[in-house]
């Protein structure tokens, strides 16, 4: 029996993955903000699967909640076979958390950095460890503003999104250097997914999502099928995918230096 950890596992694609792996006989730990949503997830699976489901309540835009969740995972599980980083909450404007950090950077990168680096030993003990980071690959190589990671000056959704995506690709360099047996995948869906929209966005995006989702979107359970195949047969090293299609990794001459520089900046900020 494998241990599968899913952040953002109470909604959308994360919940679809949780249901799949519980039905497949795996142990699943879901991390999310809502116990009520986890209870609804449990009610949707067969009773025999429910003892294999665990829940850790956490707001992953808060560093302290991330650390508490990670400590719980390390205390309860000697081995983690798959770590699926799927938590999402879209903000089009800059927002500062109660810890004084920019919320999107905290949720979409700092949280993932902490899970990837602090659970490294738990993943190392697995036979075929894999991380799936649902950060759509393909951001340009120079998208990280090392002088202003939290974008206090000139925040835009586009800049913030590109920086998070590129930082998560670079995070794979750090992860696989420490564990050459690890498969580290940056992954995004091939097309729009019909899920509940989590975020604070403008009316235009809400309307577009409400109209286009039912017309053009794929069901969450269909969207995650490529993730399931990748988790069930992981290959060591870094890779990038849109749906089931492998993409070339964005590469630049400074990749390793950027990885080291990013790690140093994050450590200093924490």
UniProtKB/TrEMBL annotation:
Presence of the UniProt keyword Glycoprotein in the record: no
Q: Does the keyword Iron apply?
A: no
Q: Which Pfam families does the record match to this protein?
A: adh_short
Keyword field: Oxidoreductase
Mind telling me which InterPro entries this protein's record contains? NAD(P)-bd_dom_sf (IPR036291), SDR_fam (IPR002347), Sec_Metab_Biosynth_Oxidored (IPR052228)
Top-level division of the source organism's lineage: Bacteria
Q: What is this protein called?
A: SDR family NAD(P)-dependent oxidoreductase
């Amino acid at each position: 029996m494998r241990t599968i950890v899913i952040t953002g596992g109470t909604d959308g694609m994360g919940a679809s993955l949780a249901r799949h792996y519980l039905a497949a006989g795996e142990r699943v730990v879901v991390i999310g903000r809502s116990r009520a949503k986890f209870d609804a997830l449990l009610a949707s699976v067969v009773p025999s699967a429910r003892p294999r489901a665990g829940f850790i309540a956490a707001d992953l835009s808060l560093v302290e909640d991330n650390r508490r969740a990670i400590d719980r995972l390390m205390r309860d599980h000697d081995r983690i076979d798959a770590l699926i980083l799927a938590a999402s909450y879209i903000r089009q404007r800059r927002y500062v958390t109660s810890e004084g950090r920019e919320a999107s950077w905290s949720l979409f990168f700092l949280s993932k950095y902490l899970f990837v680096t602090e659970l490294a030993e738990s993943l190392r003990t697995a036979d075929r460890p894999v991380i799936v980071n649902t950060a759509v690959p393909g951001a340009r190589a120079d998208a990280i503003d090392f002088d202003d990671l939290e974008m206090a000056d000139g925040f835009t959704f586009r800049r913030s999104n590109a920086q998070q995506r590129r930082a998560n690709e670079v995070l794979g360099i750090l992860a696989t250097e420490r564990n050459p047996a690890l498969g580290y995948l940056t992954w995004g869906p091939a097309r729009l997914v019909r899920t509940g929209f989590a975020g604070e966005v403008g009316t235009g995006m809400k309307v577009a999502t409400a109209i286009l989702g039912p017309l053009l979107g794929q069901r969450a359970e269909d969207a995650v099928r490529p993730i399931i195949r990748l988790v069930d047969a992981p290959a060591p090293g870094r890779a990038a995918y849109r749906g089931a299609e492998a993409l070339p990794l964005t590469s630049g001459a400074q990749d390793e230096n950027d990885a080291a520089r990013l790690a140093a900046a994050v450590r200093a900020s924490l």
